[in-house]
Amino acid sequence: MNRHLSQRLGFFVLTLVALFTVTPIVAVIVYIFIQGSPAISWEFLTVAPRSGMREGGILPAIIGTFYLTIGTAAFSVPLGIAAAVYLSEYAADNRWTRLIRLAIINLAGIPSVVYGLFGLGLFVLFLNFGTSILSASLTLSIMTLPVIISTAEEALRAVPQAFRTVSISLGATRWQTVRRIVLPQALPGILTGVILGLERAAGETAPILFTGAAFFLPRLPGSVFDATMALPYHLFVISTQVPEMPIQIQYGTALVLLVFVLGMNLIATVIRSRARARRQW
Protein backbone atom coordinates (compact mmCIF):
# COMPACT_ATOMS: atom_id res chain seq x y z
CA MET A 1 0.00 0.00 0.00
CA ASN A 2 2.81 2.35 0.89
CA ARG A 3 4.51 1.51 -2.40
CA HIS A 4 1.43 2.46 -4.42
CA LEU A 5 0.98 5.65 -2.40
CA SER A 6 4.61 6.63 -2.97
CA GLN A 7 4.25 5.93 -6.69
CA ARG A 8 1.14 8.10 -6.97
CA LEU A 9 2.80 10.85 -4.97
CA GLY A 10 5.83 10.70 -7.25
CA PHE A 11 3.68 10.91 -10.39
CA PHE A 12 1.78 13.85 -8.88
CA VAL A 13 5.00 15.73 -8.10
CA LEU A 14 6.39 15.08 -11.59
CA THR A 15 3.14 16.25 -13.18
CA LEU A 16 3.17 19.38 -11.04
CA VAL A 17 6.78 20.15 -12.01
CA ALA A 18 5.95 19.63 -15.69
CA LEU A 19 3.00 22.02 -15.40
CA PHE A 20 5.14 24.65 -13.68
CA THR A 21 7.68 24.30 -16.51
CA VAL A 22 5.26 24.36 -19.43
CA THR A 23 2.78 26.95 -18.17
CA PRO A 24 5.10 30.01 -18.38
CA ILE A 25 6.19 29.03 -21.88
CA VAL A 26 2.61 28.63 -23.07
CA ALA A 27 1.65 31.88 -21.35
CA VAL A 28 4.40 33.82 -23.14
CA ILE A 29 3.41 32.37 -26.53
CA VAL A 30 -0.28 33.10 -25.96
CA TYR A 31 0.45 36.64 -24.75
CA ILE A 32 2.64 37.44 -27.78
CA PHE A 33 -0.01 35.98 -30.08
CA ILE A 34 -2.79 38.06 -28.53
CA GLN A 35 -0.76 41.26 -28.57
CA GLY A 36 0.84 40.74 -31.98
CA SER A 37 -1.93 39.21 -34.10
CA PRO A 38 -3.74 42.56 -34.72
CA ALA A 39 -0.62 43.81 -36.53
CA ILE A 40 -0.36 40.80 -38.85
CA SER A 41 -1.60 41.56 -42.34
CA TRP A 42 -0.53 41.01 -45.91
CA GLU A 43 1.00 44.49 -46.03
CA PHE A 44 2.88 43.92 -42.77
CA LEU A 45 4.52 40.81 -44.21
CA THR A 46 5.21 42.00 -47.76
CA VAL A 47 6.34 45.65 -47.67
CA ALA A 48 9.28 47.54 -46.20
CA PRO A 49 9.04 49.83 -43.19
CA ARG A 50 8.29 53.51 -43.75
CA SER A 51 7.67 56.70 -41.77
CA GLY A 52 10.59 56.01 -39.46
CA MET A 53 9.58 52.33 -39.21
CA ARG A 54 6.32 53.32 -37.50
CA GLU A 55 4.31 52.16 -40.51
CA GLY A 56 4.60 49.62 -43.30
CA GLY A 57 5.89 46.10 -42.85
CA ILE A 58 8.93 44.00 -42.04
CA LEU A 59 9.67 42.18 -45.30
CA PRO A 60 13.41 43.11 -45.40
CA ALA A 61 13.84 41.81 -41.86
CA ILE A 62 12.10 38.52 -42.72
CA ILE A 63 14.20 38.01 -45.85
CA GLY A 64 17.36 38.97 -43.99
CA THR A 65 16.68 36.47 -41.21
CA PHE A 66 16.07 33.78 -43.81
CA TYR A 67 19.36 34.61 -45.57
CA LEU A 68 21.31 34.54 -42.30
CA THR A 69 19.78 31.21 -41.26
CA ILE A 70 20.56 29.61 -44.63
CA GLY A 71 24.09 31.03 -44.58
CA THR A 72 24.66 29.74 -41.06
CA ALA A 73 23.40 26.29 -42.01
CA ALA A 74 25.59 26.19 -45.13
CA PHE A 75 28.75 26.72 -43.09
CA SER A 76 28.02 25.10 -39.73
CA VAL A 77 26.07 21.93 -40.60
CA PRO A 78 28.67 20.24 -42.87
CA LEU A 79 31.57 21.24 -40.62
CA GLY A 80 29.75 20.27 -37.44
CA ILE A 81 28.68 16.84 -38.69
CA ALA A 82 32.14 16.16 -40.17
CA ALA A 83 33.80 17.04 -36.86
CA ALA A 84 31.33 14.84 -34.97
CA VAL A 85 31.99 11.91 -37.32
CA TYR A 86 35.73 12.28 -36.85
CA LEU A 87 35.53 12.49 -33.06
CA SER A 88 33.07 9.59 -32.81
CA GLU A 89 34.31 7.19 -35.48
CA TYR A 90 37.99 7.93 -36.21
CA ALA A 91 39.70 9.80 -33.36
CA ALA A 92 41.42 7.77 -30.66
CA ASP A 93 40.13 8.15 -27.12
CA ASN A 94 43.09 9.89 -25.53
CA ARG A 95 43.97 13.03 -23.62
CA TRP A 96 43.85 15.27 -26.67
CA THR A 97 40.42 14.22 -27.84
CA ARG A 98 39.07 14.58 -24.31
CA LEU A 99 40.58 18.06 -24.21
CA ILE A 100 38.93 18.90 -27.56
CA ARG A 101 35.54 17.71 -26.31
CA LEU A 102 35.94 19.80 -23.16
CA ALA A 103 36.81 22.84 -25.27
CA ILE A 104 33.73 22.30 -27.46
CA ILE A 105 31.48 22.11 -24.40
CA ASN A 106 33.02 25.30 -23.00
CA LEU A 107 32.65 27.11 -26.32
CA ALA A 108 28.90 26.40 -26.25
CA GLY A 109 28.62 28.48 -23.07
CA ILE A 110 30.44 31.59 -24.29
CA PRO A 111 28.16 34.68 -24.44
CA SER A 112 27.02 35.56 -27.93
CA VAL A 113 28.39 39.11 -27.68
CA VAL A 114 31.91 37.64 -27.47
CA TYR A 115 31.31 35.81 -30.75
CA GLY A 116 30.11 39.10 -32.20
CA LEU A 117 33.31 40.89 -31.25
CA PHE A 118 35.35 37.97 -32.60
CA GLY A 119 33.45 38.12 -35.91
CA LEU A 120 33.98 41.87 -36.06
CA GLY A 121 37.73 41.51 -35.65
CA LEU A 122 38.21 38.50 -37.94
CA PHE A 123 35.63 38.69 -40.72
CA VAL A 124 34.69 42.37 -40.88
CA LEU A 125 38.11 43.97 -40.31
CA PHE A 126 40.90 41.43 -40.85
CA LEU A 127 39.42 39.51 -43.82
CA ASN A 128 37.75 42.71 -45.05
CA PHE A 129 34.35 41.14 -45.69
CA GLY A 130 32.76 44.27 -44.26
CA THR A 131 29.45 44.47 -42.48
CA SER A 132 27.69 41.86 -44.57
CA ILE A 133 25.58 38.73 -44.68
CA LEU A 134 28.77 36.71 -45.18
CA SER A 135 30.41 38.07 -42.02
CA ALA A 136 27.27 37.58 -39.96
CA SER A 137 26.70 34.04 -41.27
CA LEU A 138 30.28 33.00 -40.54
CA THR A 139 30.06 34.46 -37.03
CA LEU A 140 26.77 32.69 -36.34
CA SER A 141 28.25 29.48 -37.74
CA ILE A 142 31.12 29.57 -35.28
CA MET A 143 28.64 30.20 -32.48
CA THR A 144 26.43 27.23 -33.44
CA LEU A 145 29.22 24.75 -34.20
CA PRO A 146 29.72 23.57 -30.57
CA VAL A 147 26.03 22.70 -30.19
CA ILE A 148 25.92 20.82 -33.49
CA ILE A 149 29.18 18.94 -32.84
CA SER A 150 28.21 17.87 -29.31
CA THR A 151 24.70 16.67 -30.14
CA ALA A 152 25.76 14.99 -33.39
CA GLU A 153 28.57 13.13 -31.67
CA GLU A 154 26.23 11.89 -28.95
CA ALA A 155 23.76 10.74 -31.61
CA LEU A 156 26.51 8.86 -33.46
CA ARG A 157 27.76 7.21 -30.27
CA ALA A 158 24.20 6.10 -29.45
CA VAL A 159 24.11 3.85 -32.54
CA PRO A 160 24.78 0.26 -31.34
CA GLN A 161 28.33 -0.95 -31.97
CA ALA A 162 26.90 -4.19 -33.40
CA PHE A 163 25.78 -2.29 -36.50
CA ARG A 164 29.37 -1.32 -37.23
CA THR A 165 30.70 -4.79 -36.49
CA VAL A 166 28.24 -6.52 -38.83
CA SER A 167 28.82 -4.01 -41.62
CA ILE A 168 32.61 -4.33 -41.47
CA SER A 169 32.40 -8.13 -41.23
CA LEU A 170 30.44 -8.11 -44.49
CA GLY A 171 33.29 -6.34 -46.25
CA ALA A 172 32.32 -2.69 -45.98
CA THR A 173 34.98 -0.10 -45.29
CA ARG A 174 34.78 2.15 -42.25
CA TRP A 175 33.63 5.11 -44.36
CA GLN A 176 30.95 2.99 -46.08
CA THR A 177 29.76 1.87 -42.66
CA VAL A 178 29.59 5.44 -41.39
CA ARG A 179 27.87 6.78 -44.51
CA ARG A 180 25.35 4.01 -45.11
CA ILE A 181 24.70 2.63 -41.62
CA VAL A 182 25.71 4.96 -38.80
CA LEU A 183 24.69 8.35 -40.20
CA PRO A 184 21.16 7.30 -41.26
CA GLN A 185 20.56 5.69 -37.85
CA ALA A 186 21.84 8.79 -36.02
CA LEU A 187 19.88 11.24 -38.19
CA PRO A 188 17.13 12.05 -35.62
CA GLY A 189 19.67 13.08 -33.00
CA ILE A 190 21.77 15.00 -35.51
CA LEU A 191 18.70 16.94 -36.66
CA THR A 192 17.96 17.86 -33.07
CA GLY A 193 21.39 19.44 -32.69
CA VAL A 194 21.17 21.22 -36.04
CA ILE A 195 17.80 22.77 -35.24
CA LEU A 196 18.89 23.79 -31.74
CA GLY A 197 21.89 25.55 -33.23
CA LEU A 198 19.98 27.24 -36.05
CA GLU A 199 17.18 28.35 -33.73
CA ARG A 200 19.74 30.04 -31.52
CA ALA A 201 21.32 31.69 -34.55
CA ALA A 202 17.96 32.91 -35.86
CA GLY A 203 17.12 34.60 -32.56
CA GLU A 204 20.49 36.19 -31.75
CA THR A 205 21.02 39.95 -31.84
CA ALA A 206 24.53 40.63 -30.51
CA PRO A 207 26.58 38.73 -33.16
CA ILE A 208 24.78 40.27 -36.13
CA LEU A 209 24.81 43.70 -34.48
CA PHE A 210 28.60 43.80 -34.96
CA THR A 211 28.88 41.94 -38.25
CA GLY A 212 25.92 42.24 -40.59
CA ALA A 213 22.73 43.85 -39.30
CA ALA A 214 21.54 47.24 -40.52
CA PHE A 215 19.27 49.71 -38.72
CA PHE A 216 17.21 50.28 -41.86
CA LEU A 217 17.61 49.39 -45.54
CA PRO A 218 15.17 50.59 -48.21
CA ARG A 219 15.93 47.60 -50.44
CA LEU A 220 16.71 43.91 -50.17
CA PRO A 221 20.37 42.81 -50.13
CA GLY A 222 21.77 42.02 -53.57
CA SER A 223 24.75 39.84 -52.57
CA VAL A 224 26.39 38.19 -49.59
CA PHE A 225 28.62 41.25 -49.19
CA ASP A 226 25.65 43.52 -48.42
CA ALA A 227 24.33 44.29 -44.96
CA THR A 228 20.81 43.19 -44.13
CA MET A 229 17.98 43.79 -41.74
CA ALA A 230 17.05 40.91 -39.43
CA LEU A 231 14.08 40.23 -37.20
CA PRO A 232 15.94 40.06 -33.83
CA TYR A 233 17.84 43.30 -34.44
CA HIS A 234 14.80 45.00 -35.97
CA LEU A 235 12.78 44.08 -32.88
CA PHE A 236 15.50 45.51 -30.66
CA VAL A 237 15.61 48.73 -32.70
CA ILE A 238 11.88 49.41 -32.77
CA SER A 239 11.57 48.57 -29.08
CA THR A 240 14.42 50.77 -27.82
CA GLN A 241 15.53 53.27 -30.47
CA VAL A 242 12.34 54.49 -32.16
CA PRO A 243 10.17 56.84 -30.07
CA GLU A 244 6.39 56.55 -30.18
CA MET A 245 6.56 53.16 -31.84
CA PRO A 246 3.12 51.46 -31.90
CA ILE A 247 3.12 48.54 -29.51
CA GLN A 248 1.27 46.36 -32.04
CA ILE A 249 4.20 46.55 -34.47
CA GLN A 250 6.62 45.49 -31.75
CA TYR A 251 4.54 42.48 -30.75
CA GLY A 252 3.75 41.72 -34.39
CA THR A 253 7.46 41.52 -35.15
CA ALA A 254 8.01 39.31 -32.11
CA LEU A 255 5.17 37.05 -33.27
CA VAL A 256 6.69 36.68 -36.75
CA LEU A 257 10.06 35.80 -35.24
CA LEU A 258 8.40 33.29 -32.93
CA VAL A 259 6.53 31.67 -35.83
CA PHE A 260 9.77 31.57 -37.85
CA VAL A 261 11.59 29.68 -35.09
CA LEU A 262 8.67 27.38 -34.27
CA GLY A 263 8.23 26.66 -37.97
CA MET A 264 11.83 25.47 -38.19
CA ASN A 265 11.19 23.28 -35.17
CA LEU A 266 8.04 21.83 -36.71
CA ILE A 267 9.79 20.96 -39.97
CA ALA A 268 12.62 19.29 -38.06
CA THR A 269 10.14 17.36 -35.93
CA VAL A 270 8.42 15.94 -39.01
CA ILE A 271 11.73 14.91 -40.58
CA ARG A 272 12.95 13.47 -37.29
CA SER A 273 9.75 11.45 -36.81
CA ARG A 274 10.06 9.93 -40.27
CA ALA A 275 13.71 9.10 -39.66
CA ARG A 276 12.86 7.44 -36.34
CA ALA A 277 10.17 5.36 -38.03
CA ARG A 278 12.83 3.92 -40.35
CA ARG A 279 15.34 3.35 -37.58
CA GLN A 280 16.16 -0.30 -36.92
CA TRP A 281 16.70 -0.13 -33.15
Account of the 3D structure:
By secondary structure, the protein is mostly helical. The protein has a single domain (53-278), classed as Orthogonal Bundle (MetI-like fold), CATH 1.10.3720.10. It is built from eleven helices and two strands, in the order ααββααααααααα. The chain has helices spanning 2-36, 42-46, 59-90, 95-107, 112-126, 133-158, 161-169, 174-203, 206-211, 231-240, 247-278; strands spanning 49-50, 55-56. The protein has a two-stranded antiparallel ribbon with strand order 1-2. A hairpin with a 4-residue loop joins β1 and β2 (55-56). The relative contact order is 0.15.
SS field, number of helical segments: 11
**Structural class by helix and strand composition:** mainly alpha
Which range does the strand content fall in?
under 5%
Provide the low-confidence segments as ranges: none
Query: How many structurally independent domains?
Result: 1
